[in-house]
């Protein structure tokens, strides 16, 4: 694997690390199987790209994209909590609706950002090549996000959120309103995914309405891989595992694509991911805690 | 003081399966009193507990705690007034969280939860100190997952959790029913000690007449959603299980046919 290809894999892995942390929050912490991410990822990309093209400061545009992702999470939480729609269906409804919303926001299926200023512009043009700047910049954002989420989960409020997902009846008896925790958790989770979408658009130079397909499975693969490799009781280890899982997953995929004997094309990615997640769920002894939620007879 | 006035609870209202779990229950519990509640299956014991915790809505009547009308308060809002230990040892604690995290959750019961760390060093020392009083050696296992503990240990921790924050009443929902006899005796003794030490107002639902008489200072029997008798003080002191059975038969004018009540 060339250095550029390796750094490219790390870069994409870092973007999806934010997705993995979001998926960890919804699936694992809240026990809420949330497919909204397939819509909130391209939503973040669409909002950031559209605002940047309209002349917004890229950092403000990225913040707006994060907020829009959080809003999408709130919609799913609203459908589930207030309208009492099954969590899985609620998230699918939001995801489907977002496809139309994203097309409305962009006004066309894709937007190119090649000539525009992005969050990376201030750091480019120095001695480092853009192949090094991008992963470095993303690493800083991911580390900050991971520290914030880990700190949150260790706080009183974060502990209440973990109790909600683990034992809602006990949580209620301790004065925790599960509905409020789900609203908050879904907003944070999808906010992170919206941020990932915005960064994806800016590091790749385009936003595409179809870029969200399979986001949830890639996030899950990262979470499962991370939990299988790193087990620990501290929240920092749990969140760190998502980041490590995401990066390693991308490196593994890149390596597989480069082995000519396998004959894999980049477009085979979703199939490979789906097969890998299936294997991870079925293989005994490999089961990470999140797999309990994803199998029949689980919770 | 806890006041339940003219309380009625109905399940499946307006359907062919309409069931009145409580008919017309009046119960006043003065501060510091430990009440035990007995009755056969379907008598309304758990429902009585659930109207105090806020889990069962009243069709009629009201619930007051220290003069505060809490009838319409949901469970989460009552958490500052009510502590509860469930029958199922898995229900009252989070098995995926550590012992200290479970304690921290309970210590913040009824308060606003913020972004401060859930467990500080000071807190941890306090938890260890309280756990050591259980005599189970759990003070050395603060970071262990709750799921690693036995049912009896989990119920003991649940009891401790109940005492970590202020409350008006402690609800014990057949909390030793799922334990083996020896462990049940231990948890029951611990219950008596904790209720006495903290001078708690408590309501314990039990299937066992023996436990109902051995614990607390007042016994209430429910039958078909009504309180059929209520004994305390001297009158209760001299009672034994056969007396209780005789009283039941006299009050209801019918034979008691539920074996579970005899299995004390």
Low-confidence stretches of chain A: none
* CATH structural class of chain B: Alpha Beta
Instruction: Report strand % of chain B.
Output: 15-25%
- Distance linking N and C termini of chain B: 30 Å
Helix vs. strand class of chain A? mainly alpha
Helix content of chain A: over 70%
Uncertain ranges of chain B: none
Series of H and E elements of chain B? EEEHEEHEHHHEHEHEEHHH
Structural class of the helix and strand makeup of chain B? alpha/beta
β-strand percent of chain A reads under 5%
Number of helices of chain B: 10
Number of helices of chain A: 12
Distance between the termini of chain A: 41 Å
What oligomeric state is this? heterodimer
Identify the strand order in the major beta sheet of chain B.
6-7-8-3-9-10
CATH architecture of chain B: 3-Layer(aba) Sandwich
Rg of chain A, nearest Å: 19 Å
The succession of helices and strands of chain A, N to C, reads: HHHHEHHHHEHHHH
Overall form of chain A: globular
Determine the mean pLDDT of chain A. Answer: 92
How many structural domains of chain A? 1
């Amino acid at each position: 694997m060339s250095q550029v290809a390796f750094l490219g894999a790390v870069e994409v892995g870092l973007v999806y690390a934010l997705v993995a942390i979001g998926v960890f929050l919804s699936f694992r912490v809240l026990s809420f199987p949330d497919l909204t991410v397939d819509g909130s990822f391209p939503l973040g990309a669409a909002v950031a790209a559209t605002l940047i093209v309209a002349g917004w400061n890229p950092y403000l545009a990225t913040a707006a994209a994060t907020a829009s992702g959080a809003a999408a999470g709130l919609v799913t939480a609203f459908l589930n909590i207030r309208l009492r729609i099954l969590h899985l269906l609620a998230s699918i409804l939001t995801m489907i609706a977002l496809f139309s919303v994203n097309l409305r926001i962009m006004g066309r299926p894709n937007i190119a950002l090649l000539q525009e200023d992005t969050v990376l512009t201030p750091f480019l043009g120095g001695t480092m090549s853009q192949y090094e700047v991008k992963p470095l910049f993303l690493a800083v954002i991911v580390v900050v996000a991971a520290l914030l989420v880990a700190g949150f989960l260790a706080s009183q409020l974060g502990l209440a959120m973990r109790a909600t997902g683990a034992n809602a009846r006990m949580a209620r008896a301790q004065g925790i309103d599960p509905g409020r925790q789900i609203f908050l958790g879904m907003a944070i989770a999808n906010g992170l995914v919206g941020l990932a979408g915005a960064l994806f658009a800016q590091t790749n130079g385009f936003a595409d309405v179809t870029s969200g397909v399979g986001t949830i499975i890639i996030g899950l693969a990262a979470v499962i891989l991370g939990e299988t490799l790193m087990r620990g009781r501290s929240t920092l280890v749990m969140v760190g595992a998502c980041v490590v899982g995401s990066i390693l997953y991308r490196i593994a995929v890149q390596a597989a694509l480069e082995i000519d004997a396998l004959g894999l094309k980049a477009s085979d990615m979703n199939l490979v991911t789906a097969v890998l997640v299936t294997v991870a769920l079925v293989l005994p002894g490999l089961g990470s805690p999140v797999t309990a939620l994803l199998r029949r007879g689980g919770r | 003081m806890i006041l339940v006035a003219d309380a009625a609870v109905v399940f499946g209202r307006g359907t062919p399966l309409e069931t009145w779990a409580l008919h017309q229950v009046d119960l006043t519990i003065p501060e510091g009193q430990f009440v035990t509640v007995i009755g056969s299956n379907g008598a309304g014991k758990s429902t009585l507990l659930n109207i105090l915790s806020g889990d069962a809505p009243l069709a009629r009547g009201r619930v007051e705690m220290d003069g505060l009308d809490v009838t319409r308060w949901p469970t989460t809002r009552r958490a500052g007034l009510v502590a509860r230990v469930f029958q199922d040892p898995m229900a009252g604690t989070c098995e995926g969280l550590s012992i200290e995290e479970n304690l921290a959750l309970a210590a913040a019961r009824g308060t606003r939860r913020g972004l401060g760390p859930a467990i500080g060093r000071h807190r941890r020392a306090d938890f260890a100190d309280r756990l050591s009083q259980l005599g189970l050696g759990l003070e050395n296992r603060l970071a262990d997952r709750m799921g690693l503990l036995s049912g009896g240990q989990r119920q003991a921790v649940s009891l401790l959790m109940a005492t970590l924050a202020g409350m008006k009443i402690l609800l014990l929902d057949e909390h030793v029913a799922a334990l083996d006899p020896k462990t049940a005796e231990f948890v029951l003794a611990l219950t008596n000690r904790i209720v006495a030490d903290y001078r708690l107002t408590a309501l314990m639902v039990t299937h066992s007449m023996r436990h109902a008489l051995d614990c607390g200072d007042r016994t209430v029997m429910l039958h078909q959603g009504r309180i059929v008798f209520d004994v305390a003080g001297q009158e209760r002191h001299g009672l034994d299980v056969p007396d209780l059975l005789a009283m039941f038969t006299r009050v209801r004018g019918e034979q008691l046919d539920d074996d579970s009540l005899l299995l004390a």
